[in-house]
Amino acid sequence: MNPATLALLIPIIAIIGSFIVSIMKLKERQSLAANQQENNNKSLHDEISSLRQRIEVLERVITEDAYDLKQKINNA
Fold first, then answer.
1. pTM for the model
2. pLDDT tens digits, residue range 35-46?
C-alpha cells in the first residue's frame, strides 16, 4: 500500500469505528430502558392486583347484611 492510500483509509476506518461504537452504545441504552420499563410495568401490575383485592374485600364488607344493620343502628 502506498502512503496516500493508507492516509485515506485511516480516517475512513476511524469514522466507521466510531459509528459502530455509537450504535453499540445506543443498543445498550435501549436495552437498559426496556428493562426499566419492564420492571416498572411489573410493579404497576402488582399494585393494580393488590388494589383489586382490596376493592373486592371492601365490596364484600359493604354488601354484608351485618354492615347494613350497623349502619341502621348508627343512624338511629
1. 0.56
2. 999 999 999 999
Q: What letter represents residue 26's amino acid?
A: L
Neighbours of 34 (CB within 10 A): 10
pLDDT at 58 over 90: no
Please, are residues 60 and 66 in contact by the beta-carbon 8 Å criterion? no
Mean pLDDT of 42-69: 88
Task: Give the C-alpha separation, 21 to 24, whole Å.
Answer: 5
Please give the pLDDT value at position 28. 97
DSSP 63: T
Contacts of 1 (CB under 8 A, 6+ apart): 9
CA-CA-CA-CA torsion for 19, 20, 25, 26, nearest 10 degrees?
70
Q: Supply the DSSP symbol for 2.
A: -
Nearest-angstrom CA–CA distance, 45 and 52: 11
